[in-house]
Fold this protein.
Amino acid sequence: MRLLLGAASILGLALFILPVAAEDPPAAPAAAEQPAAPAVEAAAPAPAIPEEVLKLIADTRNPSELDDQELFKRVKKALAYSKDDALPQDLREQLKGMAEAARGELQTRKQTAEQKKTDEQAASDQAAKDQAAAEKAAAAQAAKEQANAEKAAAAQAAKEQADAEKAAAAQAAKEQAAADKAAKEQAAAEKAAADKAGRDQAASDQAAADKLAAEADKAAKEQAAAEKAAADKAAADQAAAQNAQPAPAQKPVVTETAPAVPATVPPVAEVTPTTPNTAAKQPLEQAAPAAPAEAVVEVPPPKLVVQAPPVAKIVPPPPPPPPESKPLPQVVVVAPPPPVVAAPSAADAKALDSNVVDPASEKQAQAYLADKSDLAKISDSDFRKRLDAVRELMAANELSRDTERAVREKLKAERELLRQRIAEVEAAQQLKNAQAAAANPPPVVPGAAPKAQDPAATTNNTTNNTTINNTNIITVLTPPQQVLQDRRPAERLDLSELQIRIQIFGDAQSNNAYDPSYRDYWRASVERDRAILRRRLIDERHRREAELAREAADDSFEISNEYVPSDRPRRDVFAAEIDYNEMEDVLVAPPRRFSEDASQRYKVEEIATQPKLRNSISRIEIDTIRFGTNEAFIRDEQVGNLDGIAAIIEKIVKKYPTEVFLIEGHTDAPGSAPYNEKLSKLRAESIKKALVSYYVIPAKNLRTVGLGERFLKIPTAEAEPENRRVSIARITPLLTRR
C-alpha cells in the first residue's frame, strides 16, 4: 500500500510540473528543463517491481502465524530483495523490516524450544534421581529382607544339619552295636567250631597214636625176640668155643634194641601239630600246643572299608532294540513358546526404548522395510554388508518403537536366509567329503559291526537314512523326518552326522505326537550316542594333538603381538554368517588406531569395558552355540560348532604360544543386572572349557569376562536373540605384559 501511495505522489508531481512548463517556455533553456521529465520517468518504477516482491509485500500474515519453513523462506526472500538496488529505498527498508521480524520470530521459537528442552531435561533428571532413590530404597529393603531370609534359612539349615547329624550319630551307634553283637556271635560260633574240630582232631590223633604205639611195641618185641634168639645162638656158639661170656654179650643187644621204639615216633609227631594237651606221651605234648584254640577268641570284629570306584573308560550302553514297525507320522514341529523372562526395569525401558527419533534414521529404516530386492541374486559378501548396515542403524537407537520392531523382525528373517545359504555350502562340502570317504573307506572302528552285517548300510528302505548319490549321509539340510528313521549304529556315523542326529533325536523324544515306542528308542539312542560322541571327541583331540606335533608351524600368516596402529576398519562378525578364511582374517587383524602411545598396555577388564579399546579390536560372535534359557553349559552335540574357530586358534598358538584371546559373555536386557552378569560369565567359561577340553588350546591362552547387558548389539529393553551371545577376540597387542 505504501508503494502505491508513493507512486501516486510521484505521478501527481509530474502532472503539476507539465502545465507550468507549457505556459512559460522561454523562462529557462530547454536543455536545463529536459532532465525533469526523465527524472519523473526514472522515479516511477512501479510497473517494473517483480511480481514476487509484490506478493511478498502483500503477505501481511503475522510471523507467529507461519511455520518454521515459511519463516525461513520469508527471511531468505526478503533479505535477497532488500539488496536489489533497482527497488526503491523505502521498499528495501520495508523488506529488511519483514526479514528482521521473521528472524526475530525464529529466534524466539528457538529460545522457547531450548528452554522447553532444558525444563524437560531438568524434569527428566529429577525423575531419574527420584527413580534412583526409589530403587536404592527398594534395593536396601530387598537386601534387608534377603539378609533376614538368609539368616533364617541359615538357622533352619543349621538346625536341620544338627538334627541330621544327631540322627546319623544315633544310627551309626545302633549299626555299630549291631555290628559288635554280630562280631561277638560270629567269634563265639567260630570258637565253638574250632573247639569241636580240635577235640575231634585230638581224638583221631590219639587213636592213631595208640595204634602206632601198639604196632611199635609189637615190632619192638618181635625185634627183641629176634635179637635175643640171635644172641642166644651167638652165645651158644661162643660157649661151644669155650669162650662164652653171656653178660657182655647181653649188654650190646639191649643197647642196639633201644632205638627201635623211638624210631616209630616221628610219624606220630607229624600228624599232631594241632592236637591239644591231652596226649599221655611227651612227644605228643611237645607237638600239640594249645595256642591256636585261644587265638580264635581274639579275632577283632570286621570293619567296613569304603573304597573309591576305579575310574572306568567311557563304555556306551548296548544299542537299543528297534521300535515297533509303525509308520512314522508326519508331525509338524511347532516351536516351543518363548520362555518367560523377567520384565525390564522402568529405568532400562526408559533409557533404551524412550529414545529420541531421528527423521533421517527413520526414513532410512522405512526404505529398508519397503525394499523388496531379490536377495537370492546378491553375493554372500553383499548380503553381509546389508545386514551390517541394518545393525549399525539399529545400534544408533534413533528409531521409533514400532519401526524398530519391524526392522528387527525383517533382520531376523534375512539373517536366517543368509545362514541357510552358508549351511547349504557346508552341506555340499560334507557330501563331497562323504563321497570321497566312500571311495576310500577308513579302517573299521573297533567294536563296530562289519559293514556287511549292517542292513541299514546296505539297503534303501523306509528305515534307512537319505541316500544321495548312493552315499548315506546326514547333513544340516536333511529333513528331520528322514533323520528320525535312521537306524545305523553310532559307530558308522562321522562326527558331524552323529551330532546332527543327537540334536534331532533329542528334540523329538519329548514330542507326544510320536508313538511311545519311537520316543523310547530315540531316548535310549541319544543316551548311547552321547557316550560314544564324548569318547570320539576325546580321541579326535588326541589325533589333532599328534598331528599338530608332527606338522611345522603355518607360515601363511604373520602376527605382531606389539601394538601397531592400523587404519583398517574394525569388524564384528557372526560365526554362522562367514567362512573359515574370514574367521582367520578377523582373529589375526591388528587393533584399529586409537592412540599414538604404542607402549601403553591394559588389563583384561579395561580392554573389555573401555569404549576406545573395545572399538579398536575385531571380534567373532559365536552364535553357532545355542544356550538354553538360563543355561550356561554346552551340550556334547554342539561342541562341533566350535571346530572352525578352534582350528584357527590352534594354528595361531602353535606358531605364537604367547597369544591371548578374550572370550566375552553377553545377555539381553530382561532380568537383573547382577544375574545377567553372572550368567554371561558362566557362558564364557563354558566356551573356554570346551575349547580346552576338546581342542589343543592351553587354558593360559584364553581369558574370560562376563559383561551381562552392558554392551547390547541392539539397544532394546525387550528380549532380543542378537544380544544373547558369546564373542571372542585377540587382545595380545593391548594386554599388559606379565
Observations:
- DSSP finds 23 helices and seven strands in the chain.
